[in-house]
Amino acid sequence: MSDRSASSFSISELAKEFDITPRTIRFYEDQGLLTPTRSGTAGRQRVYSVRDRTRLKLTLRGKRLGLSLAEVRDLIDMYDSPSDTEPQLVKFLEVLGRNKRSLLSQLHDLRETLAEIEAHETRAKHLLADQRAGVQHA
Fold first, then answer.
1. Alpha-helix runs per DSSP H in 31-68
2. 2 and 41 co-located in one domain
3. Which pLDDT belongs to residue 56?
4. Who's near 7: CB < 8 A, 6+ residues apart?
5. pTM > 0.85: yes or no
């Protein structure tokens, strides 16, 4: 079932393909993002469809983009309704815009912090060099 054209996947196949743990997949299932069927003894083995695989791929992509699981779920649910492509795109652009602003703010803060660290580092290096050269500071 590891063939990409397969119509169903096991939890271990998906975990291996996306380099995540089965526990992560079960968590996304608990959150309602994936809905595998059950088979095997007492229905204990999860069987994931192509739809589940696509939803998992979109979930992981959304998480990489910094989206919350609620935002990912909303977007994926819109993805599942074929007539709603415009609302999906509008919502997606809103979410991306919010996340972009947040990341730009974080980037600004990181740059300021790095500049402060570099200034302290430069000062400490000068003081160390002066100490090694025997220069006294008041």
1. 50-64
2. yes
3. 96
4. 49, 50
5. no
**Full residue range of the structural domain in which residue 41 is found:** 1-65
Give the CATH number of the domain where residue 11 resides. 1.10.1660.10
Q: Which amino acid is at 117?
A: I
d(CA 87, CA 114): 40
Cβ contacts of residue 14 below 8 Å, gap of 6+? 20, 25, 48, 52, 53, 56
Count of CB atoms situated within 10 Å of the CB of 13: 16
Reduced to 3 states (helix: H, G, I; strand: E, B; else coil), residue 122 is: helix
% the chain with pLDDT above 70: 88
H-state helical runs in 1-136: 11-18, 22-30, 50-64, 69-80, 85-132
Exposure of 95 in the CB half-sphere (CA atoms within 13 A): 20
Are 1 and 53 in a shared domain?
yes
Q: How far is it, in rounded angstroms, from Cα 118 to Cα 79?
A: 46
3-state secondary structure of 9: strand
pLDDT in tens, 49-108: 999 999 999 999 988 888 889 888 887 877 666 655 777 778 778 878 888 898 899 999
